[in-house]
Known about the structure:
260 residues
Amino acid sequence: MTVHVGVGGWVFEEWRNNFYPKGLSQKRELEYASRHLTAIEVNGTYYGSQKPESFARWHDETPEDFVFTLKGPRFATNRRVLAEAGGSIEKFLDSGIYRLKKKLGAINWQFMATKKFDPQDFAAFLSLLPQQPDGAALRHAVEVRHVSFACTEFVALCRKHKVAIITSGDSEFPLIADVTADFVYARIMGTSDKEKLGYSKAAISKWAGRARDWSRGGTPADLPLLAKAAAKTPRNVFLFVISGAKAKNPAAAQALIAAL
């Protein structure tokens, strides 16, 4: 299966004359990024709706094997009662995201660090996430940031709904590495300005190895699990270098691609 590696977004001032060649037009930044990375996580969809034409343009400007993951809208996740998020979820799914066609990799439903695990309410939220609306398969992943989610009950719930738990690596957030869907979604956040590639060569090798293990259906031996390991089966993997020393993230992503 495929390991897709990328960064968050493609418009960032510090990437100009650094990741992007000097003099490259801003209109061509997505074109350039998509030919040096294999995926991009779109953050703008978290804050507001995008136009259908934007999704279509992103599709047309990128290579055939490139993928986008989208953040679900904060209006769905930043609420007291998650069971009431149906309207926001439906609006997002109807906003034109299917214009990405096969380049729609997964959807990241990100929750604030203050959001605690409420089994009943979270189950209600997961039941609102359609798997195949209009025949188009969707991959859903949840990014939880409160320690109360680090439990076997949460893992079992996500497996029941076939929703991936995002592995937050090298961060202050709980690291949950249990595989709960037919794909894996990881976000690593430990790049440093002190490293030429953002990460040390050893760290690059470690994360590339973990991604390789996941894609081959295994479980990285150096990552702790909360529950019994998932059945061994090949999986697609989405691995993003996020936060940390953001100016270094494209270099780290490219180093991971090279290592893989």
